[in-house]
Specification:
Low-confidence stretches: 2-16, 18-26
Number of domains: 1
Strand content: 25-35%
CATH architecture: Roll
Order of helices and strands: EHEEHEEHH
Strand order of the largest sheet: 1-3-2
């Protein structure tokens, strides 16, 4: 992906073919309980999610999903990533795209730890997700507990992880561009403020 202005370059990665995934993930044992999870930020990237959960997550992916009545925003600063990180905020006029997983329950605590639930960073929110012509009810996603009053820019590493995840899980190109421009504008605004402070 390259910005038409020529200032920013990003290479598209190959999208993942969800048609090769069985309806019920093969790694989930027949008697094992599961939960649905909607990822909209860095957890869309299976490599980054595997780092936290300790196993491959591709087999648990159902496919691209849509969360109606919410919008994305960078309303939290992550102490571990040291930058702004994504959140979803209720907004009846918009929707958020991401990836729907069916995860084994044994991974629930690890996912909560990744999302900083024990320290009050994020909390569970249960939503309806539209995916492949079906509506999945009571899907877990995560929302920021103490939202900032304005958005904080992501760093380059988080920027790339989120965008890589969006492309890998097959989100529409128009949505990926919108996500790209949103993050890019936040970074430009942050750099402008830093330059203003240095000039004082």
């Amino acid at each position: 992906m390259s910005n038409q202005s020529g200032h920013v370059h990003y290479s598209w990665v190959q999208t993942y073919n969800y048609d090769n995934i069985a309806a019920v993930p093969q790694q989930v044992q027949a008697n094992e309980s599961t939960f649905y999870y909607f990822a909209y930020g860095s957890c869309m990237c299976p490599v980054d999610l595997k780092r936290s959960l300790g196993e491959k997550t591709h087999p648990y992916a159902i496919g691209p999903g849509i969360l109606e009545g919410y919008r994305l925003g960078f309303y939290r600063v992550s102490p571990t990533r040291n930058c702004g990180v994504l959140d979803v905020v209720k907004d009846s006029k918009t929707s958020v795209r991401g990836v729907l997983y069916q995860l084994p329950w044994r991974l629930s605590d690890r996912l909560d730890k990744r999302e900083d639930v024990p320290q009050g960073g994020y909390r569970h929110e249960y939503v309806d997700i539209h995916c492949e012509g079906k509506v999945y009810k009571n899907v877990r996603t995560y929302v920021v507990v103490d939202k900032l009053s304005e958005e904080v820019a992501p760093n380059d590493w988080y920027f790339n992880i989120v965008l890589r995840g969006a492309v890998t899980c097959g989100l529409p190109e128009e949505y990926c561009w919108s996500l790209f421009h949103h993050m890019y504008k936040l970074q430009q605004r942050h750099q402008g403020r830093c330059s203003d402070r240095l000039a004082l």
